[in-house]
Amino acid sequence: MGFSKKKTILISIVIIIPLVIIVPIITSAIFKAYHSDDTADKYESVPPPISLLSVNATKLEKRVFKNNLKASGVISAWQEIIVSSELEGLMLEEVYVEVGDKVKKGQVLASYNSQAIEIELNGSKAIVEELRIAHDEARINFERAQNLHNVSSISEQELQRFEVSELRAAAQLKSARAQVNKFKLMLEQANVLAPDDGTLLSKFVEVGSVTQVGQELFRMQRQSRVEWLAEVDVNNLNMIRQKQVASITLQDGLVFNGKVRKIAPEVSRRAQYGLVYVDLPNSKLLLPGMFVSGEFEIDEREVLALPRSATQFKNGFSYVKVIEKDSSITERKIIVGEYFENFYEVISGLQVDEVVVKSGAELLGNGDYVTVVNSIDLESNLGVHGSRLQ
What we know:
With 390 residues, the protein is α+β, with helices and mostly antiparallel strands. The chain is built from 4 helices and 21 strands.
């Protein structure tokens, strides 16, 4: 009985000791395995960065900014030609042009009824022929008298009388020929001609009008040329030079370039401005009387600049959205200078190779991720650091 009890205790010890050793090991392995799976699941569940917006990007670029002097004034005809009547008391038979027509030098603008002139011309020609015959007769008589005087057949006094008759006949013939030329000229003047190429600005007569000498018939814009009469403050006139480049801008945004032709020799006493005459190109869009704004190119300089769309303004400061290496957004305050042709000069706050959002930046905040859709090289931007504008 005692031996059997001892045997049972020994068997229990043999079984329990291995269990005490093995169970913790198994439990530890199970615990590690369990927590190892949780960690893997935890890291696998972290999502990659998500791009919120596709954007165009840009960098600082070199631009030429021009220092311009602004002015305003009217467009005027370079020269106006007044076409007047040279005849009196005649009726206009035809008017061939209308306001706005382009005409060439020598083109007939209108014509008078010339029947009365033709009658006068024919009568004058008949008088010339009659006086030519009388002059020939007086010349022959004078030649005969000279021959008779040479043989002492007539006196000196009689010879002088034949000579005076010949001179009088010559003078009368000359006067008659002048009348013929006069009526020929009037016949030519019966056609009103354009004195130069140009555009018809005004017409003051119609068919059937009876005009007087010097009466204005038409007004032309010579050679269809126009110029800008820019009103420049007297304090700025010394900045203007002949042949200086200038430009005007119409209300629809069209720009026309020209050059300074001359500066008026006097200024307005009341308004204290001087007129600067700027030659403009011929265009049907530039009409005399139009009031336009423009500017004169004074000087120019090269700057680093960003497009207007890349720059945001708030609370009196300027900002850009910088695209970092990981495509995230960082808002950066910058200092801008002059604005010219849709670009802002950047004075400081941005590295020369840093890439910024070109448009739509107002929709993005710090830490947002973007996809750049144009060809800006982000790696080049961040791999080679340019010096920041200070």
